[in-house]
Amino acid sequence: MSRRTTLLPAVCLLTLVLQVVCPRIGRGEAEPEEAQPAETIVWRHDLPAAFEEAAAENKVLLICINAKNAIGEREEPAAKGLREVVYLDPTVVKKSRSFVCVFLTAEGSSDDYGELRYRLGIDGFIVSPQHIFAHPKQKPGAKPLVREEYWPYGDGERAVKALLGLMDEALAAYRAVQERTGTSDPEAEALADSIAPASGPERAAWIGKLVHLIQREDKILRRRALRTLIEQDKEEDCIAPLVPLLATFHEEKRVDALIDVVRRLGVPGLEAATPVLHELLEHEDASVRGHVAVTLEYIGSAASTQPLLERLKGEKEVVLANHMARALGRCGAGDAAVRKRLLRLAQPGKDTDFGSFGAVIGLAYFEGDAKLARAVERKIPKLGSPFKLGKNTHTFLRAALLWCLSEIRDPKTAPFLRRRVVAPLEKETSPWKSSLIKYCEAIARRCEGDDAAQKDVDKGIEAFLWADEAGGLADTFRRGRNMERFVPKGEWGNRPEGEDE
Predict the structure, then answer these.
(1) How far, in Å, CA of 109 to CA of 47, rounded?
(2) Domain membership flag for residue 487
(3) Residue 438 contacts by C-beta under 8 Å, 6 or more apart in sequence?
(4) What is the reported pTM?
(5) Does residue 429 belong to any structural domain of this protein?
(6) How does DSSP classify residue 217?
(7) Long-range CB contacts (< 8 A, 24+ apart) of 417-425?
(8) Could you read off the pLDDT of 447-475 as tens digits, one per residue?
(9) Eight-class DSSP state of 104
(10) How many domains does the chain have?
(11) In a domain, 433, yes or no
(12) CATH number of domain containing 27
């Protein structure tokens, strides 16, 4: 289980506290009527991603917590002064370029608050406004470089000087840490982000140096070197040397390093990596198995079909079983045994439907399979009314099966939807009715060949994803084919753009 998953209850509580102490805070953007200055602080609103960026660039992280309103719905003057005056001061803006700056509000995701707790050991009430300066490689639970709660300096010259002073103090503290620990390695830093020679012995030597860098213990340098190799690969000359590292890190029991390499091998068509990955499907660490499944999904090799079928039979972790079912659909699309297995899994559960979602996404890879389309269609009416109250309404399973039909795209699905799904909905009075009808009609048009309907299909499934109060559905869909376009990054696998978590 991932760090953020284990922190979920605490994260939810922290979010609630923020909303009580700092209700309805904005995201830091100026109001529409306000004129923007020529230059402003470059704000980030994703704290985990900001930590990765700070580490990659060796910059101190500046986290600004700022509430528009305080208890009692009154506007918070100190926070307003920072937003509208201090943060816009040219000297502050200029100095901010030395930091990775984050504007954190109650609308931040659970990842934001989980990262805040995990990295900085913060609990209890979250004061607004406050400024936190964190080391780019902040160790979990360690104290920040500088932290100041509240803001007694107003919004004039005194306030600007106070913030500049905090910035200077944080930079000095960071330099002191570097000198004390001796972690600075300019040569390795430069190599991790270097440009590959075009060809010849120089290129081979460059690849060898990066592979050696990946074997070091420095996680940040390892990830940067991996990204550099993947981005500059030519006909797998950079990727192929990574495959032997899987066995090396497995033998050395370096799980974090193993996962980093597994994630980066998620390259479509990379057949050379599949034999070792198939062995790692049996790894004792659940997170390794999950990442391997997702990487196999990206590779999409038919050779992975049987290993995934076998592993899926014995996988007890429901989240991992979802990942493996999804990968199985990608690798075994068109295979009758795979179709049968996934259809069996795409069933309502006794207490929850969560265990069926990976299978539904896996089935969505069977594009143009008319036989499968009919089988999926038969499942939908059996789920009952989408508007009944109480337990086992199967709301999300229904939405997922409908989405699956939009991916299979068989023309006969359109009349089925209009006759067996939309027509009965016309008699309902639920406020959800119009949205569900619009969603079904978009899927019908998509099955008829209307590519423009895809946008409405995406909006429809997105609404159902974010209605899932437990977040589990979004996690399972996170790596599912075109679902990546609108579901935030998650804990499993490698995104196409090479984004780290």
Answers:
(1) 9
(2) yes
(3) 456, 460
(4) 0.61
(5) yes
(6) S
(7) 417/441, 417/443, 417/444, 417/447, 418/444, 420/377, 420/380, 420/381, 421/380, 421/381, 425/386
(8) 999 999 988 998 888 777 655 433 444 44
(9) E
(10) 2
(11) yes
(12) 3.40.30.10
